[in-house]
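Worked example
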Amino acid sequence: MAKAIRFDKTGGPEVMKWVDVEVGEPGAGEIRIRQTAVGLNYIDVYFRTGLYPLPLPGGLGMEAAGEVSAIGAGVTGLQVGDRVAYVARPPGAYAQERVLSAAQVIKVPDAVSDEQAASVMLQGLTAQYLLRRTYPVKAGDTILIQAAAGGVGLLVCQWAKALGATVIGTVGSDEKAAIAKAHGCDHPIVYTRENFTKRVREITNGAGVPVVYDSIGKDTFAASLDCLAPLGMFVSFGNASGPLPPIDSSEFAGRGSLFFTRPTLFTYIGKRSDYEAMAAELFDVLVSGKVKASINQRYALADVGQAHADLEGRRTTGSTVLLP
């Protein structure tokens, strides 16, 4: 028997239970993984609270890394002992062992640790599609990233800087401002005491930015739109403060023919070839040192309730890994 986190009702961190589970053998096209590190993401909170509905009882967790411990019939290109990582649905990564489709995993290069891989499969691939595909950032661009000291935020700051962009980022404290600045954020704005829309306009000499990457949602929606230049793009990739209000298209017309998109990672990695190419680019920037995985918190997987409480309380920075 292995251990895993399960929950049978939505609610606070206390609904998650550390229980015995039967893992079983992999079927055709499947592998079993002995997991060594699991990533923590805000989407896990959305599932736990019921904002994103799941069939219950169920598991949580979208990403992990570990070692292949068994292989089902028909699987090629993998063998027992290979190091792999994944971001996958349905949730269930909060576990010591797991069976899943071989098509959902990516081999991990020797130069990338299990903890690094587990911390970037969701957040790092999100940063990749935001910067390279949703709005392809180019040298000379000035961009705004909300929650710049968070897991995706720190990756976006570093990667955008490596692409030659000027990075403006919002943060909640001076401590987080210092962290963001150390990771490539040229202009951290402490939103608790500064009007970030006004500061963005000052920094850009009134022009605004061509793109805002916003994972905060309800609390920053209107102000984020006010930061955009005409024909700018508002990228809503999360809603930590709550869902966006009903969208009125005149909001985008009146501010200069703005674009709006609500991307999801699983659309971008829907084709195996895209998944592989995106992961390869992500691992390349990690190995090159242009982007570093900032793992600033580690918890035992059994203590995931505390990890969720700290995440929701905005007491974390960068990435968090759970250790089975």
